[in-house]
């Protein structure tokens, strides 16, 4: 199997969490809209982020989707993908992580974000908000992070989408914490 044929399987896009498996993006959106509808007066952050981990013979990518009601809980799910080689280039890993996040974010970019916004819009005068982010699993400090030299390039890719603001460590917790948790587990290929 070639890398491109493996990446094309990304189009299957099935997500899971602790309660559900095999969720399509449409079902993920339903869950997000239901979560927002429970408290439409809240302040929300819609965040997508990807992390990766090199394992013997493959590199595992996990993309997380989180809708966070600030100070009052969250709903989350994730998707796993394996590329059948061990990626050694930090830039290649970071580029693929960002691209996979953008791929998922693209699904939500138009109608889905509008649907989320329509739920909270009647409560905007009461403080309801919706912020949208793509988390980049990279740090800005060159002494600490090997990814620092690529951060601006990845941020520009996300900013170019127009609907999402990029976030990097330490704020990028969906990529660096939530998705990271699931990259450690080996996959059965």
TrEMBL record:
It comes from the Bacteria. InterPro entries: Phage_KVP40_Orf299 (IPR007405). PANTHER family: DUF458 DOMAIN-CONTAINING PROTEIN (PTHR39961:SF1), HYPOTHETICAL CYTOSOLIC PROTEIN (PTHR39961). This is Uncharacterized protein.
């Amino acid at each position: 199997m070639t890398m491109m044929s493996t990446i094309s399987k990304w189009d299957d896009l099935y997500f899971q969490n602790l309660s559900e498996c095999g969720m399509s993006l449409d079902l993920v959106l339903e869950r997000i809209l239901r979560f927002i509808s429970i408290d439409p007066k809240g302040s929300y952050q819609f965040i997508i982020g990807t992390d990766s981990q090199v394992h013997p013979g493959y590199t595992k990518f996990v993309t997380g989707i989180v809708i966070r009601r600030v100070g009052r809980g969250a709903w989350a799910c994730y998707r796993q993908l394996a590329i059948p080689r061990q990626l050694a280039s930090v830039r290649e890993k970071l580029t693929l992580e960002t691209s996979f996040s953008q791929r998922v974010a693209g699904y939500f970019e138009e109608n889905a974000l509008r649907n989320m916004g329509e739920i909270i819009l009647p409560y905007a005068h009461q403080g309801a908000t919706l912020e949208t982010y793509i988390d980049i699993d990279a740090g800005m400090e060159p002494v600490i992070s090997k990814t620092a030299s690529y951060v601006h390039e990845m941020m520009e890719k996300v900013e170019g989408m127009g609907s999402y603001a990029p976030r990097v460590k330490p704020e990028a917790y969906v990529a660096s914490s939530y998705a990271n948790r699931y990259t450690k587990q080996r996959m059965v290929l």
